[in-house]
Amino acid sequence: MGSQRNYNNYYHLPLDQLRSEQLYRVFADIERLAGRYPQALWHSPDGPRPITVWCSNDYLGMGQNRDVTRAMVETAWRFGTGAGGTRNISGISHPLVELEAELADLHGKEAALVFTSGYVSNQTGIATLARLIPNCLILSDALNHNSMIEGVRQSGCDKAIFRHNDLEHLEALLQAAGERPKLIVFESVYSMDGDVAPIRQICDLAERYGAMTYIDEVHAVGMYGPRGAGLAERLGVMHRIDVIEGTLGKAFGVMGGYIAGAASVIDAVRSYAPGFIFSTALPPSVAAAATASVRHLKASRIERQGQQCQVAQVKDALIRADLPLLATPTHIVPVMVGDAQACKAASDRLLEKHGIYIQPINYPTVPRGTERLRITPGPLHTGAHIEALVQALVEVWTALRLPLEPKVQAAAGFSQPMGYG
Questions:
Q1: How far does CA 311 lie from the centroid of its chain?
Q2: First-residue to last-residue Cα distance in the chain
Q3: What positions carry a catalytic annotation?
Q4: Residue 416 pLDDT
Q5: Would the pLDDT of 418 be above 90?
Q6: For the residues of 24-86, what is the DSSP string, one character each?
Q7: How far apart are CA 340 and CA 349, in angstroms?
Q8: pLDDT bracket for residue 130 (50, 70, 90)
Q9: How far, in whole angstroms, is CA 118 from its chain's centroid?
Q10: Dmax (CA) of the chain
Q11: How does DSSP classify residue 172?
Q12: Has residue 60 got a pLDDT over 60?
């Protein structure tokens, strides 16, 4: 009989390596309190403690909006909890059909397709779209999200990476590609540096060189534009983008991802994408809640205006406190630390001493040496919350002797304020 092999040992070494590099992720056990958000309970080792959340992607607080929660609860009572299967096997539900129609209307497209997450919609959407185009070359921004990178990789197509927001580099790659089919994939708002893409100019290049465009608007949908359709809507260029991808799990406050585009494009993904075909559909209650949120933010600008106001106040307060703020034209507010161990220590001290929750952002989410605390102010943060946040950050920076470096610019900026659109 052969020797017994302990397979668990294969996993101890990589985990120990993460711990030694201060990259091991520790999740805080948080209990969000509907109606009181951004207040929450942290289930600490010493028991529950009240905290204020400053790093949520529920940017507008729609996760506790009464129209949204009511739609979820009432639909669950009516339809039950689960979807019952994949979309091909009994998982289709009328609330899901309504949601896709609402999303297509939001972006001014013929059709939309909903996935279980924004990650899946990028990963399987990009891979399927490119794979169905013979000899397709994918041109991908260097700072694209991992889900987009995986979609490019899984397509099996040739790829060319252009320097972040570098139009000259993109044009050179488009010229070199000649007449072969081309797909440009990029984001509108980049979630870690908070900078934005030159969308109009990318559309100009795509039209000049005959390329298809795919934009990830996950950090912009609900947030920008007259109806919350994203940065492309705010700029008036949605009609120039072939495929718009978004999420239901951030500003819309629910869960799921989607793509919107021409009917033939969406139908092709529906028919060929493994990540869609073989995944259980979103439950009817989740779809109904998402529809309620999308409809609400199409009509209401109150949440967007409130959020932009609080973002401006937070940025101003951080600058006055001489904290190392990364200048951004968006709602994302990175405070730079530059060291993984120090970033984790700062996050821990904020939570344990001040009751403020901001998760540390370390490698591989951001490059080594650019570790940060990523603050996401929302319309429900008050002036008192902001004052407490700044005082806590100053105390932490002083206690840990963190560098108060000069403010640095984001990788690329917007030539004018984002506004309340």
A1: 17
A2: 71
A3: 250
A4: 34
A5: no
A6: ------EEE-TTTTTEEEEEETTEEEEEEE---S-TT-GGG-HHHHHHHHHHHHHH-SS--SB
A7: 14
A8: very high
A9: 8
A10: 72
A11: H
A12: yes
